[in-house]
Each structure stands twice: as C-alpha cells, then as structure tokens.
Amino acid sequence: MALSGPSRRTKSLISTVVVAVLAAAVWYVQGGTGDGNDRAEDPAAPASSYSSTAAPTDAVSGLPYVGLDDLPPEATATVTLIDEGGPFPYDKDGSTFGNDEGLLPDREDGYYREYTVETPGSEDRGARRIVGGADGELYWTEDHYESFEVIWR
Q1: Sheet of strand 129-133, all strands in order from the earlier edge strand to the far edge
Q2: Per-residue model confidence as pLDDT tens digits over 34-76
Q3: What is the C-alpha to C-alpha distance for residues 19 and 64, in angstroms, rounded to an integer?
Q4: Structural domain for 136, as ranges
C-alpha cells in the first residue's frame, strides 16, 4: 500500500495557519493590542503603537506623555542630575514644589520637588522646570507650571 502526502486542502490549511501565526507574532513584537492606544498604559511601548488621533495620557494624572528624547537637551541634562542626586546649578533646585496649581496628582506636602531646566539666553532661571515625585515620576513644564506633561524614558 503506497502512502501519499498531505492533500491539497491540508496544505492550504497549514499555509493559512502559518501566515496567521506569523501575523500574530509581528503584531505582538510591535506591542499592539489593536486599539491604537497602547502607550497610554505603557509609556515604553514602541512608537508604532501610538494612535495618530489622540495623544497618550497617563492613567494616574490624566496628563499627556512626552518622551525625554523629545525635550530640549537641557532637560536631559537636568534629568541626569536628578538621577545622580546633584549637584544642581540653582539653590532652589530640589526644593519642595507645592502643586498649588493642582495640575499634578494630589499628594502629601513635600512629595514633589522642582528642578530648573536651563533656558539658553535667559538671564534668570527661565520658565522651564522638571518636577519629580517621591515615587520617581517626572513632569515637564515649559511655561512655569501652567501645564505639565509626564516624562517617559
């Protein structure tokens, strides 16, 4: 009795399954969930998973995310100083930020600290700041606390 190979229908089914598995693997590697809003939950997700119609926002604060790489180079320098614990160029750096504007999540007094981000050409500290929370979150403002974005890196 001679054995024959898989039927044409079986080969077609196997090909379809292989294509589906490969498509799912590509989707998974790119970090997709299909809703186009993956970064809202995972700020480290690849840029390809962003929705082109809505900026991703932080679930805790409701503020939009901004990548550290998208900020001025002076902001990166300030974040490095924060990570290293200083030394900071201004006496006010590291002082308590009171969140008087109420734009950041409500926390106990002393939770937030503010740091100057150099503004080239400014004769004073300028308007740019990074505010850090005690849990390590960082917020960017370029308009002296009138608005904030959550920094992801």
Answers
A1: 65-67, 149-152, 138-141, 129-133, 112-116, 95-97
A2: 444 444 444 444 443 344 445 689 999 999 999 999 999 999 9
A3: 37
A4: 65-152
114 given a catalytic annotation: yes
The answer to whether residue 56 sits within a structural domain is no
> What Rg do the C-alpha atoms of the chain give, in angstroms?
24
Catalytic residue among 41, 84, 101, 114, which?
114
Whether 35 and 92 share a structural domain: no
* Mean pLDDT over each residue of the chain, to the nearest integer: 80
Instruction: Please give the Cα distance from 135 to 113 (Å, whole number).
Output: 11
Q: Are 5 and 22 in contact (CB under 8 A)?
A: no
pLDDT of amino acid 90: 95
Distance, in Å, from the CA atom of 61 to the CA atom of 148, rounded to the nearest integer, reads 10
84 is catalytic: no
Residue 37 token pair = 């809003």
Catalytic residue among 74, 84, 118, 144: 144
